[in-house]
Each structure stands twice: as C-alpha cells, then as structure tokens.
C-alpha cells in the first residue's frame, strides 16, 4: 500500500492532496478520509490509489503518524496572552450579536474559527 504525507486538506471544501513517497501528488477526496478523522498537513498516511478522471486519486486513507510541533515553534507566552485577549474581545462581539438575534456573517465566523483553531493548537499540551 502506498504511503506519503498530507500536503493539504480542507474539510469544508471536501478535498486536498497527498504527496506520495515517490513524489506524486495524489487527489484526496473526503470520501477517502475515515469518518471522524482530522487530517492535517504533514501527517504520514497509507492509501490506495485509483486512476480517476483527472489523475491519481487516493482511496481508503489510513493515518500512520501524526506530526508533532516542536516546543520551540509555539508562540511566545506574551504573544499568546495578547492573542487570547484579542480573542476574548472578538468572542464578546460575536456573543453580543447573537444575543440581539443576529446571525454571524460567514466571513466573520470563518475568521473567528481560524483564530480559535490557532489558539487551541498553541495551548494543546500534546502538540
């Protein structure tokens, strides 16, 4: 079974690419990702390959190894504290908007989600 690394994957768009160990880019559709699996760039994976309409396509993805982020690549504590303070202000504004019965705009919701993910990754002791 071929192996490689996830080049990128966007769960909202439902696809991404894997770079096989022999250097080929392989299309990664969401149908090849196991239910409930979080696929991130740099993950080592095994996958089947089929020839699709537009080239190689991954089948039955299996995560072999999750990359770890070196301790030195985390944000500086002062920078992280500042980011969290900004996040609190941002979430407070979203909360006020929701209390008024307004739906959060898609663009703003995407920005808030991206900041939440970044903070969560920096706080996660397993990473």
Residue share in β-strands: 25-35%
Structural class by sheet pairing and helices: alpha+beta
CATH architectural type of the largest domain: Beta Barrel
Largest sheet: 5 strands, antiparallel
Mean pLDDT: 85
- How many angstroms separate the termini? 28 Å
How many β-strand stretches? 5
- Helical residues, percent: 25-40%
CATH superfamily of the largest domain: Nucleic acid-binding proteins
CATH topology of the largest domain: OB fold (Dihydrolipoamide Acetyltransferase, E2P)
Query: What is the domain total for the residues?
Result: 2
Radius of gyration, in angstroms, nearest whole number: 18 Å
In order across it, which strands form the biggest sheet? Answer: 3-2-1-4-5
Q: Output the number of helix runs.
A: 2
CATH class of the largest domain reads Mainly Beta
Ranges where pLDDT stays below 50 over 5 or more residues in a row are: none
Shape, per Cα inertia axes: elongated
Order of SSEs: EEEEEHH
Structure write-up:
By secondary structure, the protein is α+β, with helices and mostly antiparallel strands. It folds into 2 domains: 3-65, Nucleic acid-binding proteins (OB fold (Dihydrolipoamide Acetyltransferase, E2P)); 71-123. 32% of the residues lie in helices and 31% in strands. It has a 5-stranded antiparallel sheet, with no helix packed on it. A hairpin with a 4-residue loop joins strand 2 and strand 3. Helix 1 packs antiparallel against helix 2 (106-123). The model has no long low-confidence stretch (mean pLDDT 85).
């Amino acid at each position: 079974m071929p192996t490689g690394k996830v080049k990128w994957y966007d769960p909202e768009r439902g696809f991404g690419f894997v770079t096989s160990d022999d250097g080929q880019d392989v299309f990664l559709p969401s149908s090849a990702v196991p239910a409930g699996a979080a696929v991130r760039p740099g993950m080592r994976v095994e996958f089947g390959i089929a020839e699709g309409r537009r080239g190689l396509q991954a089948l039955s993805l299996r995560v072999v190894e999750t990359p770890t982020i070196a301790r030195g690549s985390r944000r500086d504590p002062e920078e992280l504290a500042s980011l969290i303070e900004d996040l609190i202000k941002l979430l407070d504004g979203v909360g006020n908007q929701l209390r008024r019965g307004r739906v959060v705009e898609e663009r703003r919701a995407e920005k808030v989600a991206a900041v939440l993910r970044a903070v969560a990754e920096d706080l996660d002791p397993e990473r």
